[in-house]
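tl;dr need the bound structure. longer version: we got a ligand (flavin-adenine dinucleotide) that a collaborator sent over and nobodys looked at where it sits. i said id run it. heres the input, straight from their email, havent touched it
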Amino acid sequence: MANLARNFFIGLSNNDFLNKSARKFGTRFGAERFVAGTVFDAIVPVIRELNQKQISCTMDHLGEFVTDRNEAVHAKEKIIAMLRQIKEEHLDCHISIKLTQLGLDIEESFCIENVEQILDVAHACDIFVNIDMEKYIHYEKTLEILKSLRKSYTNVGTVIQTYLLDAEKDLSGLEDVRLRIVKGAYKEDSTVAYSSKEDIDKNFLMIAKKRLLGKAFTSIATHDHRIIQELKEFIEEHHISKDRFEFQMLYGFRVDMQHQLVKEGFRFCTYIPFGEDWFGYFMRRLAERPQNLNLLMKDVFYTEEDKLKKQPIIIGTAALTLLLFLGRRRKKEQNN
Ligand SMILES: Cc1cc2nc3c(=O)[nH]c(=O)nc-3n(C[C@H](O)[C@H](O)[C@H](O)COP(=O)(O)OP(=O)(O)OC[C@H]3O[C@@H](n4cnc5c(N)ncnc54)[C@H](O)[C@@H]3O)c2cc1C
């Protein structure tokens, strides 16, 4: 059942038509719980508030699987404008980018050019850039591009997904690169990825521990309290300095735990997604934890006094009907 729900939401996250349609609605269906807004200006106060609580941030201007050059250039320009604003407003904040948003599926050299322009501005602003890891089909290419960028830039790092069978092997060669360790958010084939939670967790712990004993900075990105607890014990046992790593969580998730980790003196960074392309991101969050849907249902449909709200039901039903209608019409057009 859990797998069915996961496959369903992952399927939706990859649906081009739904992704494009969702842009027109602005964040809806409770997505605003996990997506901070659609424009950077509106997020600045959110970052400031987190910074005041000793939490740094990484900004993700949402967007992926871009197949149009203009769209990729537009995304690059928005990211560059965001870097300048981060610098001007003295925010404690770095950025996370996706290569498919910057044209990897269009032409590799075009994508690299876009990333280099981002890295030049980021370097001038003294801001770190993380390249998020996407689906496995982009994995080898992403590592290859990162390694080539590292020859000219030190302010760039990436992500290791511990569901990948090769994750440990691929750590070698990245010993001095700042890395984020995650479990992995996409649906991958069993020939390349572990599928059981037990194997993925075991690999996460092994890789995170290896990194913590290494020399480069590591971001431990998980909401899993069991993993965090085991790593905290490991850190204490091995007298690992708190400057050498940080915990990361996504915006809107386990906020109490985020504050608790800061209280305990750990470095903490919140990953803040924003922008019009919220649909794929939102569906992946529902895929990895169907309970998130319960939280949302409660927020979207009920008031604090547990009374049923009318307005979201009307908007939700109308939006769903419209999506189904447009989807059917499109299918019909394709069949003709
Ligand atoms: C900062 C950050 C950046 C990321 N970047 C990438 C990336 O670049 N590429 C990529 O593929 N993936 C990325 N991910 C997603 C990641 O791969 C996982 O899909 C996602 O984090 C879910 O796994 P988890 O480790 O948080 O815990 P899960 O395996 O989802 O949960 C483990 C256990 O933790 C508890 N738990 C989890 N969430 C909650 C909650 N909200 N409330 C209460 N209990 C909870 C539950 O007991 C659950 O059983 C990122 C995640 C984070 C946090």
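gonna send this back to them w/ a short note. The chain has a mean pLDDT of 86.
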